Amino acid sequence: xxxxxxxxxxxxxxxxxxxxxxxxxxxxxxxxxxxxxxxxxxxxxxxxxxxxxxxxxxxxxxxxxxxxxxxxxxxxxxxxxxxxxxxxxxxxxxxxxxxxxxxxxxxxxxxxxxxxxxxxxxxxxxxxxxxxxxxxxxxxxxxxxxxxxxxxxxxxxxxxxxxxxxxxxxxxxxxxxxxxxxxxxxxxxxxxxxxxxxxxxxxxxxxxxxxxxxxxxxxxxxxxxxxxxxxxxxxxxxxxxxxxxxxxxxxxxxxxxxxxxxxxxxxxxxxxxxxxxxxxxxxxxxxxxxxxxxxxxxxxxxxxxxxxxxxxxxxxxxxxxxxxxxxxxxxxxxxxxxxxxxxxxxxxxxxxxxxxxxxxxxxxxxxxxxxxxxxxxxxxxxxxxxxxxxxxxxxxxxxxxxxxxxxxxxxxx
Length: 413
Ligand SMILES: Cc1cc2nc3c(=O)[nH]c(=O)nc-3n(C[C@H](O)[C@H](O)[C@H](O)COP(=O)(O)O)c2cc1C
Description:
The protein is of the alpha/beta class and 413 residues long. It folds into two domains: 3-176, Rossmann fold, CATH 3.40.50; 196-412, Rossmann fold (3-Layer(aba) Sandwich), CATH 3.40.50.10300. The protein is built from 14 helices and 20 strands. The protein has helices spanning 17-26, 45-52, 63-69, 71-76, 88-96, 102-109, 122-126, 128-139, 165-176, 221-232, 260-270, 313-319, 337-347, 392-412; strands at residues 3-8, 30-35, 56-57, 80-86, 114-118, 143-144, 148-151, 157-161, 196-201, 206-207, 213-214, 236-241, 253-256, 275-278, 285-287, 307-309, 326-333, 352-357, 373-380, 384-391. It has an eight-stranded mixed β-sheet, sandwiched between helices. It has a six-stranded parallel β-sheet with strand order 3-2-1-4-5-6, with helices on both faces. Helix 5 (88-96) packs across helix 8 (128-139). The longest helix has 21 residues, at 392-412. 45% of the residues are buried. The structure holds flavin mononucleotide (FMN). Flavin mononucleotide is lined by residues 9-13, 36, 38-39, 87-90, 119-120, 124.
């Protein structure tokens, strides 16, 4: 059984720690708790001992603890160190290498992967010092889950709420991966080794004549980022891409093409796959006829641009007897985002829909299409989870961890 050392910092969200312990154990993980002095004000060691079924550690200079389980041993004895809630104070100490209590000494003494779930007031989170510490910790290879936006215990609203215990537990389990996948700090474990992935990305170009075409604003950035994140987890990734300005993704098999028809054929030729992630903005229609020669502007008026419908790639994969085990569609909508996503989930027989609000007034600089940020929502049969506004690379990483978590929970169940 994989072991997690849960360091609980002194924030209000510490009251969720017993629930988090339960959720981690439900993921098949053994949990040992370490409380900071401040955390003891918010949650009782006794309740944590009962839910974890283990001794709770609090004091650096407890002689019995040092004899039985010293701070170095404590940091080595777990496959993952999870800090939740991660206070601004703990983040600052970890970023600076300060070791003046059991929690911070343990964090400095470990060579195991560390995941933090920050929780604090929005102003503390947005403070330049915290953001500096966050950047440093990311550079040092520590993993993060959250924080989320929402109502806070202090009565304010904003970014700084700790992610839900179920989300933290799922991300921790995903990071730990299978029994044959030991994690190296700062590196991605081969959580998806042996899985074949089909990803589509970018727009398609539907020719009108040899020089003109119908297209859309998709840049392909989100699909390329997902391809990179899944390849880093050891999957065999095939990226079927419409025309984009992006470079090939390292470690990914690229299939570059132009039209929706070509994309349909390329996707079906790659089956069977374990995972399908269909991010491409495939043109719904194409000109009924593509002229052999460039259409000329004439006195007689406008050219006759009759359209015909393209085949629906996502729906065809959902209906295929070779349907990927996990089929994920993307929904780019300008309004009623979640309702349309639910409808698409059912109509196209996919397992998850990642819904994006691509309205030009979505608040995202440069818009979702073409820009570097996204605010995606994962919609499945029983769940809706807003990822929050973040870079496309972070969105890709988050989705990749959900995918790894899905396959990991199937392996352990
Ligand atoms: C009622 C109360 C609530 C607090 N909530 C938080 C919090 O949510 N996040 C945080 O970073 N600090 C919070 N603090 C401040 C920390 O408790 C304080 O910085 C403490 O030194 C953290 O110690 P630790 O990091 O060793 O747990 C809170 C303090 C009080 C009195």
